[in-house]
Amino acid sequence: MKARSLTVLGMIAALAIGLAAGFFGRPLVSGRAGDDSPSVDMNASDADNALTAQPLPNAPPMPVPSSDPRELARLKEQATTLGAAAMRKMAMRFVAVQVGDTGIGPTFFDTPRPFPDGMCRVNAYHLANRVIAGTSRSSDDNESWKDDFELTPMYAIWMSPIGPQPSDAIAERVCADYRDFDHLFITDAMDVGQAPAELAILIEAARAGGPMPASVKCVRTDLAAAVQSQPCDPKAILRRFKLQDLAQVQEQDDGRPNYDVTTDTLIFRTGRKEDTVGITIKARRLTKRMSDLIEVDIGIEAPCH
């Protein structure tokens, strides 16, 4: 799944805005509840000016809820118009889009920004396919469980987190130009950089061919084989991967209030017909960027047949 050109982005953004206006908007009904004065139509230009002159955080307070159909229609029209203008401004920040398989909505990316430890941070904005198609949640089999719009922080590793770190100017330039959105990872860890730093230590040790910095176990599981679990070579597995192959970090909670000892599970990006690889690292944190690796478990699952 590759990042498409801004031409595709513009087409999809325009389609989304058009559908949003058509699906959610209704003709404005003149008059307020108990008021004969006509309401004022707000077109797209007026909405843009309103957003520019008065930022959304300083907008007037929401009116008292009303059950009058005319007032509800007026409020809906106002929200739709302002929302469409806001989405147009947001779309100007997007630099790439990924379009998934049939039934999966597009994901937009904004400009990556520098993050410590040789990383960039980028926001991924996923729009459910039902918003584009104008269908209901119940008819959306692929994404019925998802929100219409999701914002997910993601991270890119562009240099080793355990080596000398770049200057702020270099990091700004590299991240501003970063466009490899097929190699990002998500994490729920409080310290985003710890797991990548520990992974870098393991990969470096495996490639050097010397002793590993911790006890490392490796087991490959194939439910279709006669012998379902077999040992594997951990160094060979680690040498296969680059830091950019990291897809997800899950921070484990063992129920103990010991924040110096952490356990993270790292999941790697592989092809659909390849083994699924997960590495669980238990480590004792010494300083912000130094960990004493306690034990490492590499689990490999053969693809389903």
Write a structural description.
With 305 residues, the chain is α+β, with helices and mostly antiparallel strands. The protein folds into 3 domains: 6-92, no CATH class; 95-177, no CATH class; 186-301, Nuclear Transport Factor 2, Chain: A. The protein has 7 helices and 12 strands. It has a 7-stranded mixed sheet with strand order 6-9-10-11-12-7-8, covered by helices on one side. Strands 1, 2, 3, 4 and 5 form a 5-stranded antiparallel sheet that branches. Strand 11 and strand 12 form a beta hairpin. Helix 2 packs across helix 3 (69-91). The model is unreliable at 1-40 (pLDDT under 50).
Mean of the pLDDT scores? 79
**How many strand elements?**
12
SSE succession: HHHEEEEHEHEHEEHEEEE
Largest sheet: 7 strands, mixed
Strand content: 25-35%
Shape: globular
Task: Provide a compact summary of the structure.
With 305 residues, the chain is α+β, with helices and mostly antiparallel strands.
Q: What characteristics describe this protein?
A:
305 residues; alpha+beta; Nuclear Transport Factor 2, Chain: A; 3 domains; seven-stranded mixed beta sheet; five-stranded antiparallel beta sheet; 7 helices
